Amino acid sequence: MPVVTFHVGMPKCATTTIQSFLAERAGWLGAQGQVYERHPDDRTRNQGNAAQLAALCAAKDLDRLTEYLRYFLRSRRDVLLSSEILFDLGREDGFAPLRDAVGQHGYDLRVLVYLKRQDLWIESDFKQHVKGRTAWVEGFDKLLQMRLSRGTLDYHRLLSNWAGQVGRDRMTVVPLNPSQPHDYAVQRFLEVIDLPQPEGDLHVPRQNVSPPAAMIEAARHIKAALLAQGLGPVEIAPLLAQFFTESAAEGRSGQDLGVLSPAARRDLLDRCSASNAALAASFLGGRAPFDALGPDAEEDWVSLSERAVDCLSGRVASSMLRSKPEGDAPSFLGRLQGLLRR
Questions:
Q1: Fewest CB within a 10 Å sphere: which of 50, 64, 207, 228?
Q2: How far is the C-alpha of 234 from the C-alpha of 133, rounded, in Å?
């Protein structure tokens, strides 16, 4: 029986990297019997090939869902479908319409889920909220509390919901860790669909790399100011992208100390420890999913707000220096130094 592999990794879990590989190697994958293609009516961008399918399933538009799915399954060969939007269908019976439609077409299915350690994931989530085309300008703590209250960081519960819909034996869970090779996410994907690596290097560059946390926090304040001036999120997004590019070009990236302090990071993982232990027991054969925390460096920690001020003041100083009047450098620099001290 042919199989549909649903790649439903959480957002910010190597999704762009995997989808780029699938799109670039679609010909090679097809020659190995695995079909990855986009629907001709799909107008989404950077969302894989199953975003519209997921939207139809969420809306329970069964007629259009069945017709849309039929395009992908017309070949009677194994099929690869990928979208972060699929992940949200794990709640309650959200995936059931798509599961049933796949079965009605004579296909089996498997679900491939990628996860990142909760502290690393919530930091990536915060960065995406700030730089994305949304009106989000709240601080990190507000987002963390929202995710905790919704159970987003309780991975065992989330995946148990998935298992209740598709069966645990149809699921493969892939924890991602900084200690793994840079192409591990793609390697593991190929293992799951039982394909060898293509000859030579996988050529998997890092995709959608976020700026350091200090730059993101600075951008959050800029975004709030631009929203107050009447600009919309769609107009603001490219301005923030320009800010990130110019700040990096000026060497303001620095070491990324993250958003969470060492103590707050440890506390968050303590809160998630029971869920992660259950995740290991239920889905990973007892293997711990994530790297352990390294030694604390609390004395080296600089608060996020301090780092954001440094980033912003450096950008303002550079801008002022570029526009300073000719021949007025000493007095100008004196005024600038006073401004930055204040």
A1: 228
A2: 5
